[in-house]
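Morning!

This is the sequence you dropped in the shared folder:
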Amino acid sequence: MPDLLLELFSEEIPARMQAKAADDLRRMVTDKLVAEGLVYDGAKAFATPRRLALTVHGIPARQPDLKTERRGPKMGAPDAAVQGFLKATGLNSLDEAKIQRDPKGDFYIALIEKPGRDAIDVLAEILPVIIRTFPWPKSMRWGARSGKPGSLNWVRPLHAITATFGPETEQPDVVPFSVDGIEAGQTTYGHRFMAPAAISVRRFEDYEAKLLDAKVVLDPERRKDAILTDAKQLAFAQGFELVEDQNLLDEVAGLVEWPVLLMGSFEPEFLATPAEVIRATIRNNQKCFVVSDAKTGKLANKFILVANIEATDGGKTIIAGNERVIRARLSDAKFFYETDLKTKLEDRLPKFEQIVFHEKLGTQAARIKRIERLAAEIAPLVGADVAKTTRAAHLAKADLLTEVVGEFPEVQGLMGKYYALAQGEDASVAAACEEHYKPQGPADRVPTDPVSVAVALADKLDTLVGFWAIDEKPTGSKDPYALRRAALGVIRLIAENALRLSLMKVAASALAGLSVKPADAQKLPSDLLAFFADRLKVQLREQGARHDLVDAVFALGGQDDLLMIVRRVEALGKFLESDDGKNLLAGTKRASNILSIEEKKDKRTFDGAPDAALYGLGEEKALAKAIGEVQAEASAAVAKEDFAAAMSAMAKLRPPVDAFFEKVRVNDDDPKVRENRLKLLNEIRSATRAVADFSKIQD
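The structure's back. Tokens below.
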């Protein structure tokens, strides 16, 4: 079966756009092929700075013939309807139509046969449309071609299109189409500097091999592997270790077609600047990697750059140019750092009076005061020193006004720690300046120092309560203030530090510190708690746990101790993995279903204790006795927060519940017996609610 090779050759594509562009090209072409009845075997897309490429394997040479039926008017319909039907279907007369009998009458049916087209003709039709409608985040229109103004919007000027189609055993054909005066062909070009000549290609294997000979590594993953391997070896050879940086690796692989690794150096005196600042300077300005001393682990005065050319002088000129720029940037960073050290953190705080955090929530200065007050209240709950916590909350945001953070926003918090230590602050206070932003994502570290935990919770809860109060909640995929991330941060801080605190009380305290009050202030804490429940379900789902159990626990109401909820969910999950748990769940749901049906039928509930005098069967008596014992035992275990013991108690219900449903007919002919048995079923439901609402659990 034939294969397609498509390449769109242009000026340099921004590195940040390449991966998505390759994926978009693959998706758009394959979706169109399938829509046209051309089901393929496999497809893979590639990107380099100067080209997007796609290979699609196993495309049928021709579309399948299509036979469809089209229903027309009823027999005896007006002539206008009949003529319209004939014209739409291409029939010459009604004699060519079939008659279909229907309860509503007899209808004309046209059998339309549409012969399939050659796949190359379909490709010639769909590829120009895809190119013209390609979803670049930013695109441009450039100069005239053949005396006519250009009409194509593309990320950068498009120079050539390679498009071939054919079976592996034969010479492929060029897909005949053009876009904005650019004719599709089978000519591409190699490396801009080392092999710029035109290259004639046939199919993908030939194309990839010839590009490699022309100093172009087509596959971005292969370029990444080469860069990482060569960088590690280059560092190791001189007694260093590469400081790996996945984001930088992804970006650099999109800047070169033929990676060549070189090592440069800078003056040792720059190492007096914090390592993170040096790394940010070198990464942001020159897209270079830094290395550390293999023995000490400390940052070394070396860097590794990725060139796009094998220079005739061995790269000396390239290295010198990068060293010159890096030296200038490091000089700036060193100056910023030393200038920052001359001003104490607290002396910067008055400037926050003029900086608005949010128009409805006041200034940054007002927010810092709220965080201080809330952190001081949280401190005793998490075992933190109140004075240190208050001091840390007071200083935590001050580094936002420093020169270094202004230049490199990614080191906010970290620089606060350095500046706090430099001015003699307590180690816990300094650590909190950095760690109060954490965790910022599922892979980020969770602080364990109590001072950091208190300030981190205060910071996140102030944000959540504040935006809830002004009704700026996340909607759909939109979350401009990262409130979902803040809620997950609170959950992880509590769960991973085994903290016991009432979210409702802390939220109410945070609300009290706001100058703006929502219309329904009483509802806000519980509304926010529901949001935490949703976030907890997301986290459990990502961990592979059963998120429906969160609903089962939250449905009991009155619970805002996240640690206890997590522990109860864990115990419930283990219980439901056992045979006793599975069977008890089935029995409880059966009881609930019967109750729901009968309550709806009788338009009443069956609350209240059953009458023991009406028990006529041993299974009724045994179940009633078991419910009483289990309910007391489970409630006592829950009160002690021994959820495993509570689940063990629940397991004792399984035999009498099974026996009851096997031997007892609930809807007895005697109305009093029926009512009593329904009340007994309600007792099952009530007993299990000591640990969870089993009706919320999915089978």
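Headline: The CA atoms of residues 281 and 332 lie 9 Å apart.

More detail when I'm at my desk.
O.
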